Amino acid sequence: FQAELYKQKDGVAMGSCLAPSLADVFMIKLEQKLNKLSFNKPQLYLRYVDDVFCYAFFGSVPTPQLIETQLKRLTDILGDNGYPSHIIRKGTLEGKVIAKRLENPKHRKVIKLQSKLRNIFFILPYFGEETFVLGQRIKKLCKQMIPTVDLQIAYKKTLTLKSIFLPIQKGLDESKKMKNILYSIPCTNCDFKYFGETSRDINIRIEEHRYDVRRHAPNSKIVQHVHEKKHVMDFNNAITVAHETNWKRRTIKESLLTHSAGGKNINDVKFKLNIY
């Protein structure tokens, strides 16, 4: 470090390939000791390599003398690890203040009320038997982590054809009706139509199509139809076919509309659909 060589006397070097294996060995030894405990076993123990999340309930409260001993030991450990003394003092003082507040009968009453079993309702979308398995696992995990909570799980149906293809229009802002839509543009000289979708205002999208025709945009299907057939698109009679906020559903609907045109579509089908 900074042109000086140091010898590591304890632990494993950062980035060493042996570190994960040694961490596993150490943690397995620790877990064996935890399993041998006859009381105060952890209620929940989760581990990933050497990162542990664990909590346990204790049936007794340390005496003031023992608390002071523990605080002194904690202060020494934090100091040895380089923590500033003012941060250590602040933390221990705040801990003592909290402990004093908990000794107040009013705070004890609040804690006692909070320890009563509470019902909490949770909704899961139903996808089959797997949903029930997931629900039971969630209830079990909740019971382990929060014993004072009685989790009640309800199941609801998922998307239906009605919710996907018949979105409710009631109460929508008028300006929003011009966005997230599917539209069609007829040809003045034949019965071909262009089907499109946009998340923006329909008037802006139509104006973009007009601009493509004026500048002869090579990648535009409308421009190709106009040039090859010598036809004129009827932009003034473009209509809104459907409203859909979800992009994927909107694209699928566009493909359905294009497919239902029976070959009289100017645009290509984005999704190849197997429709019988």
TrEMBL record:
PROSITE patterns: RT_POL
Top-rank taxon: Eukaryota
Protein name, per record: Reverse transcriptase domain-containing protein
InterPro entries: RT_dom (IPR000477)
Domain Reverse transcriptase: 1-124
